[in-house]
Design brief:
The protein is of the alpha+beta class. It has one domain (2-112): Gamma-glutamyl cyclotransferase-like (Hypothetical upf0131 protein ytfp). The chain is built from three helices and seven strands; from the N terminus they run βαββββαβαβ. The chain has helices at residues 17-20, 72-81, 106-114; strands at residues 2-6, 28-36, 42-45, 50-53, 64-70, 89-100, 116-123. The radius of gyration is 15 Å and the shape is globular. Catalyzes the formation of 5-oxo-L-proline from L-gamma-glutamyl-L-epsilon-lysine. InterPro entries: AIG2-like_dom, GGACT, GGCT-like, GGCT-like_sf.
Length: 156
């Protein structure tokens, strides 16, 4: 099992959350909410208004998202879904736990209590340079006030 932090369309209430609860793709168990310990630019970019966390530590905001415990099958699905390693790269990042619902072993409980844990995050180092100049967000909502509606893959 691996811990994954999602900040975009895979969160609850967002357009691709359906994949997180589709057990045919593997298991993903919601653990809690968190935010990146370091600041990162979260931008909405491209003609499909996709949220991207640019892997530029120290610039931007502490990005909010959700922490999931996933099995190997779901992790493989997420790698494919996220276009890893070309579009996004899966890297370990430190995530500050904001709200914890996870149940389990003592190491997990201790990590949650300490407030910081390492999670895999899909961020990118492969982006057009002009994306650095886009507005930065601390949280993503596909129907947020930014007015940039996400375009589902089925509609592209």
């Amino acid at each position: 099992m691996a811990r994954v932090f999602v900040y975009g369309t895979l969160k609850k209430g967002q357009p691709n959350y359906k994949h997180m609860i589709n057990t045919a793709k593997g298991l993903a168990k919601f653990q809690g909410r968190g935010r990146t310990v370091e600041k990162y630019p979260l931008v909405i970019a491209g003609k499909y208004n996709i949220p991207y966390m640019l892997n530029i530590p120290g610039k931007g905001h502490h990005v909010a998202g959700e922490i999931y415990l996933v099995d190997d099958q779901m992790l493989q699905f997420l790698d494919e879904f996220e276009g890893c390693p070309d579009m996004y790269q899966r890297t370990l990042m430190r995530i500050e736990v904001v709200e914890w619902e996870g149940k389990g072993g003592t190491s997990e409980a201790r990590a949650a209590a300490e407030g910081v844990m390492e999670c895999f995050v899909y961020s990118t180092t492969t982006y057009p340079p002009e994306w650095v100049s886009l507005p930065y967000h601390d949280s993503y909502d596909s129907s947020g006030k930014h007015g940039l509606a996400y375009v589902l893959r089925e509609s592209r």
